[in-house]
Amino acid sequence: MSRYVCTFEKKELTVAAMTGLLRRVEALTSGQAAFYGAGDNWSPDIDGSISEMAVARFLNRYWAPGRLGMCDVPGGIEVRGTRHQNGALIIHGSDEDTSPYVLVILNQMRARLAGWLFGVEAKRSPWWQSNQRHPAFFAPQQDLRPVDDLIRFLDDPKWGPAQLEAAMAIAQGKQDTK
To answer: Which residue has the higher pLDDT, 175 or 157?
Structure first.
């Protein structure tokens, strides 16, 4: 089992879940459309909040939920959560290329950080699935960068930008891929 698994205490889970509920109520009362067709399903808001809290906790970053239009976790980190144990990191064409996206797998009161990719790295044509209700890129867990690299990206002022530059160059066809 990954060392990037956390078990939430009841109060933590309650705070994250309530944050998700508040997000959904705010969206409903302000006339904001649900993201990617969530419709009346409140689970994406709740699971998203729980996933964000897990990433912030692991990275020792203050989680300030409810900041519409801001990154999910300080440091420019975007978070995607799923309850599918073999779920993929889902990236949409409009998602920011230069942001790191972390995949969190939820299971009851536990969260596992499966890995991460820059947006541009996840936008590989073999991962494009047009047969979905909302077509997107589905990056498999086995192809994600390890969480340790995310920590290094955030902490090392030279390594992080170099990794992003290399990823952008590969995406633009300037270098051979692995």
So the answer is: 157
pTM: 0.89
The answer to whether the CB of 119 falls within 8 A of the CB of 99 is: yes
Cα separation, 124 vs 108, whole angstroms? 31
Which 8-state DSSP code applies to residue 91?
E
Token pair 């230069």 in the structure block, residue: 98
| pLDDT value of position 170 | 86
Q: Can you give the pLDDT at residue 129?
A: 94
Q: pLDDT confidence of 159, banded at 50, 70, 90?
A: confident
Q: Which residues pair with 116 in a beta bridge?
A: 102, 145
Tokens at residue 75, please?
């440091």
Domains of the chain, residue spans:
5-171
CA dist 139 → 90, 95, 129, 131, 170 (Å): 6, 14, 10, 15, 16
